[in-house]
Amino acid sequence: MAHADSAPSGSPIPVPLKRSVPRAGLAVAAMLVLLLFVVTQGRTLWNEVSRLRADLALVRRSAVIGYQNIHPNPSYARKPTDWYHDEGEFTLLWARWDGDGHRWFRIGRGEVERERISYPMGRDVIQAIDYPVTEQAGGAIWGRIPSEAPVVGFELAGTDSVYPMHVLNKVLVINDQIGDRPYLITFNPMGSRDGTVHIYEPIVEGRRVTMGMSGYFHDQKPLLYDRGTESLWVESDEGALEAIAGRYKGARLRSIVNHSPVSWGDWSGKHPASRLLTGADRSKTPPTF
To answer: Could you tell me if residue 12 is inside a domain?
Structure first.
């Protein structure tokens, strides 16, 4: 005899139903958790991404590009204690030690004030480029320059010419020539924040002059010397390059143009046939004019 609380014979046994969360609810909960993570960790993640990008850019900038002979030529000679002194009607500025004695810039007495110039580092320790090495419309160096690397470009004598700032930072002066027309390119690493590069017409009294680095800064501007007369030149407040001492005192080089840097990727994309400065040929003796 069956118990009263037993299910009738042949009837299915009821199974208790489990409570379940709808799938839509699970998705909403997951999104809320993700949103909370992004809100709390977003700044950290962004900082990590920014640092990673900076590291990658540093690696690219540090990669071997292969610019030729743009390093300084350091002098280990002891500077004389009287590196600036007067002799009669002249002021003598120490230039360099060349193995058999000290060499001097001999200028008019007081033409350069001691308080306005830096301590000497030696003439041509920072080596100007006298004989540029270039590539035209591509080449080995062309393909190694990072797209974000700063360069400055000009149209000179009908040719798009471009100069990497990495090179200009090391040499400061480039005595260039395109066809039969000479150009003087200068850069002041302590100048304006936008990194303006100047180009001058290097003609004085109908003759070309070439410039080197004297080893001094004058009012935080590179003090240059011309190789022919060893007159001393500096950028004026008006932007011209002016001789402030020596045979050419008072002469000015006409400014042709000046530009600020752009990225290599931007320049090369718009000017694919450019003439690119890639270094210096140091096998030749510097000119004497």
So the answer is: no
Domain count, the chain: 1
Quote the strand ranges of the chain, DSSP E.
84-87, 90-97, 102-108, 132-136, 150-156, 159-164, 173-178, 181-187, 197-201, 203-204, 207-208, 211-218, 221-226, 232-235, 241-245, 252-259, 262-263, 275-280
The reply to whether 24 falls in a domain is no
Residue 144 located in a structural domain? yes
Q: What is the DSSP letter of 7?
A: P
Query: What tokens were used for 261?
Result: 């840097």
Q: Is 119 exposed, middle or buried (0-12, 13-18, 19+ CB in 10 A)?
A: exposed
Q: 186: alpha, beta or left, given left = phi > 0 and alpha = psi -120 to 50?
A: beta
What pLDDT digit, counting tens, does each position of 191-248 carry?
867 789 999 999 999 999 999 999 999 999 999 999 999 999 999 988 899 999 999 9
CA of 272: how far to CAs of 5, 138, 143, 267, in Å?
95, 8, 12, 8
Measure the CA–CA gap between 12 and 230, rounded to whole angstroms.
Answer: 114
pTM attached to this predicted model: 0.78
CA distance 65 to 271: 20
**How far is residue 283's CA from residue 125's CA, in Å, rounded to a whole number?**
17
Structural domain range at position 237: 84-280
The structure tokens listed for 142 are 């062309």
Contact, 200 vs 211, CB < 8 A?
Answer: no
Is 21 among the domain residues?
A: no
